[in-house]
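Bug #77: duplicate submission created two jobs. Keeping one. Sequence:
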Amino acid sequence: LRLVLGKCLKPEYGELAQQIWAAFRVPIARVKVIVTETQYLLSAIEPLPKEELTQNEKGIIKEAGLWRS
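Kept job's structure:
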């Protein structure tokens, strides 16, 4: 997953993205998750370089009033 300020462009992971943001506060992150029938298991959390952000992901930051190009 790619998370930007606690949001994910995949709606099915929205709640998980918010929980990860609340726990780790990594503003832009790449998160590896193992999905089972009953739970999500975090495998890795690492920073996502801003150079790799998509236009939609940059839009999340811009909406928050934090983006400067």
